[in-house]
Structures are given as structure tokens and as C-alpha cells.
Amino acid sequence: MRQKGPLKQFDEFDAWSFSRLGERIGSDEVKFDFPRLAEDENIVSSTVEFWEVSARVNAKSESVVRFKGRFNAELSCVVCGSGVEYAIDFERHLVLVTSEAQADAYDEETLDEHTDVVACPGAINLRDWLEDEILLACPMFPKHDACAEEAGRSWREEGDGEENTDESQDDTAGGPTQEVQRPFANLSDLLKGSKK
Ligand SMILES: [Zn+2]
């Protein structure tokens, strides 16, 4: 990429042209600071190891931007409050549409798990956007492995909620008797009943 002065060009980043041109930029060429990562009270410390933003026009003539990278973070454990180390790989593909209405109307069933739709009416701050993606990739409930066991006793869901139409018993039946009433067991009966 040509030298275009400081980072100004990324303040009003044209993701649409970037896609049409099939461009790519990454941390090997551009250095960004991520102030929100640095200031977030749940992030004790973090280092973005690398990032890459690339884009293309797909077979359906849609512009798709891909955010990818890896960062190391020490996050506050939700159980004990002390730091827990994470190495987080992120990768998300975003199909651009021109308005929120279009984004709402988009049939997300056609997308895979790494892909979302985003309204991108005009120029956007690329650094902010990338930082959003990094923050989104942080685990919602960071926990130490040991702390996770602790928390798991009350949080475990026992695979409930998978509404199989299959009548056959699965093999987990016959395990230890469950002492705890699952909070949503009755709810799912209610829901089943109301659908008839
Ligand atoms: Zn902990």
C-alpha cells in the first residue's frame, strides 16, 4: 500500500470501494492504538498480536469485509475477580448493506456462523470498527478453569433446551439422579403446550 500520510485515510474509510478493489490491510503495514481496549475495566491488559482487514465482492455481488486477528488479554474472572489469561483468535465476515432496514430484512439463515450483516451507509472509522470486533471477541464470562468448575455446578444446563423431535431416549439417562429442579423445565412444557 502506498504511503498516504498519517492514519487519516482510515478515519473515513470507504469499505465499499475497499471491497470492490479486493483490498487488504493489516498490522504489518499499519499501527493502530486501541484506547477502548486499554480503558475497559474488565480488561486488565491486552496486546493485539496481529490483525487483518480484507474484503471482496462475493458470488451474490455483495461486499464482504473480513476481520481477522489474534490478541492476548488478561481479563477479570467473573467468579473470583482476579486476572485470567486468554489468547483469542477472531474472524468475522460482514456482509455490507446500505441501511438498517436492509440489514433487518436480510435472511440471516443463509449465512454461516462466522458471517453477519451490517448496515454501512457511508464512510466509517476503520480503527473503531476493528476495535469493536476485538471487544466482541472477548468471552462474555471470563473464568479460570478452576473457577469455571465452581460456577459450572450451578450453571450447568444438562443439555436441556435442545428440542429434539426424536422420541428416542438419549444415553445420558440413567446417570446420577438430578437433585436440582431445572428452572426452565416447566417453562418448556408450557411452551410446548401453547403451540398446539
Ligand atoms: Zn477465577
Explain this structure to me?
With 196 residues, this protein is an alpha+beta fold. The chain has one domain. Helices cover 26% and strands 27% of the residues. The protein has helices at residues 15-20, 35-39, 100-105, 126-137, 145-155, 185-195, and strands at 24-26, 43-57, 63-76, 83-97, 115-119. Strands 1-2-3-4-5 form a five-stranded mixed β-sheet. β2 and β3 (63-76) form a beta hairpin. The longest helix is centred in the C-terminal third of the chain and has 12 residues, at 126-137. It is globular and about 50 Å long. The protein starts with 14 loop residues before the first helix and ends with a helix. The structure holds zinc ion (ZN). Zinc ion (ZN) binds at residues 77, 79-80, 82, 84, 143-144, 147.
